[in-house]
């Protein structure tokens, strides 16, 4: 039995005067339309925006007044967001349920920064691993690293799941323009064998390198896929075990498990218990990213992360992009009753960005107790979803414009294109701007009738507007910009978690999933004499067994 750590009691949010004042204030603001807000405050388009790090962050189309913002800032201060932020950057063990520091910010701290955990500076180790990754990545990229038969590596397959998959997979898509030609990254995560099969069916094992990415090196899905990969690879080399060293690398915190699997510890890249899975794409978990874009590209991405870290750490909350983003998110979620957030990048390279953010936000803040274990009496994490525009416009945007649910949107766009194929970038940008404008201001029945639409049809064409959104306009996508954007969301999630008083850095629901299936696995094989689940689960197991002839 571990001894209980000393956890300070958390003041319940709803007993704070700042919270109660917001509840009253929200009654008034809920009746205001964005048309009124812009009419009464003509400068808000310029002033409710932040310019930093080649980003123009416009939150003027959120349903907030300047008073709302002051009140939200007062709440953030009362909840100690700044003190908790400083504690994170200092290396305090703010993940109390797991008694761990939360130091993804150390992964991108420049050499010479001092960040201590248990009295030991962790930054030198971070740079040692980065240097080892760089040497490995360079060898693979240059072809100096040879497979078992002497061929160079053409495909890198990252095998991992959750935090050991989503970040690198998102980054591979996002940074394709910077990837080395002739070297492809693929990702196998699902224990469904279709995933492994489809990702390897056209590959030559002699040109394929597997990176087994798992913090614990015990995750069922990853280990099943890793063993299948080992068998697939060995088969091609007549079972010669020596080939494993040439075709497998590992990223993990668990050296013994890696050894047991048979991977040469020289090909293992470590990280630390103070890096949470969903905060790890900039650790050695990003090895595939580094192989794709090169050590310099990876370091540029880290520099972008660090720039946003510094912005978050040093900018007063009033002009602090992630903090304001978190406050607006909290306002929408709690006070305007919006249960979801759509993240809509107008950039095809950010195809997987929303999926990545789903984990970052929902695994972090999908919690129902405060740090001290008291059940919350307020809403926590929204459901995060979305996909790139303009495709979404031809699908689910109808509901965002005219449905009965209010869906706050984050629009992400870039001014400069990466390829010059005509006027696509202007068309894309016109679309994103038109969407946020229409969502905010809508179209009244009068305006529609004024266009000659018959009265019977006009109600169908009314756009009520007053649908809140934030537009994040970046100058241009790049590895550095990607780092800034990911860190922006990381710190937004941090801000919200700090106000809700939850632990944004544990994930007991995920851990549950890791143990539940283990009980059923032998039962599917027909070996368990008696099924002791509920009636539905028992019947499903029996049907599965019967169809599998067991
Ligand atoms: C992330 C979660 C979770 C984790 C996966 C994979 O914050 O903890 O998504 O990353 O379950 O875990 P391993 O890296 O240990 O295989």
Describe the structure.
- With 550 residues, this protein is α/β, with parallel strands linked by helices.
- It has three domains: 13-92 and 315-415 and 424-450 and 480-500, 3-Layer(aba) Sandwich (Rossmann fold), CATH 3.40.50.10490; 120-292, Rossmann fold (3-Layer(aba) Sandwich); 511-547.
- Helices cover 46% and strands 10% of the residues.
- The protein has 21 helices and 13 strands.
- It has helices spanning 17-29, 34-40, 44-47, 66-78, 81-90, 123-142, 166-174, 193-200, 220-236, 244-247, 255-261, 287-314, 321-335, 353-365, 397-402, 424-441, 445-450, 458-461, 479-500, 508-524, 535-547, and strands spanning 49-52, 55-58, 116-117, 120-121, 155-159, 184-188, 208-213, 248-252, 268-270, 340-345, 383-385, 409-414, 469-474.
- Strands 1-2-13-12-10-11 form a six-stranded mixed sheet, sandwiched between helices.
- Helix 11 links the parallel strand 8 (248-252) and strand 9.
- Helix 1 runs antiparallel to helix 4 (66-78), helix 7 crosses helix 12 and helix 13 (321-335) packs across helix 19 (479-500).
- The protein is globular and about 75 Å long.
- The model has no long low-confidence stretch (mean pLDDT 96).
- The protein binds glucose-6-phosphate.
List the helices and strands and how they pair.
Blueprint: H1 17-29, H2 34-40, H3 44-47, E1 49-52, E2 55-58, H4 66-78, H5 81-90, E3 116-117, E4 120-121, H6 123-142, E5 155-159, H7 166-174, E6 184-188, H8 193-200, E7 208-213, H9 220-236, H10 244-247, E8 248-252, H11 255-261, E9 268-270, H12 287-314, H13 321-335, E10 340-345, H14 353-365, E11 383-385, H15 397-402, E12 409-414, H16 424-441, H17 445-450, H18 458-461, E13 469-474, H19 479-500, H20 508-524, H21 535-547
Parallel strand pairs: 5-6, 5-7, 7-8, 8-9, 10-11, 10-12, 12-13
Antiparallel strand pairs: 1-2, 2-13, 3-4
Helix pairs in contact: 1-4, 4-13, 6-12, 7-12, 7-14, 12-19, 13-19, 14-19
Bound molecules: glucose-6-phosphate.
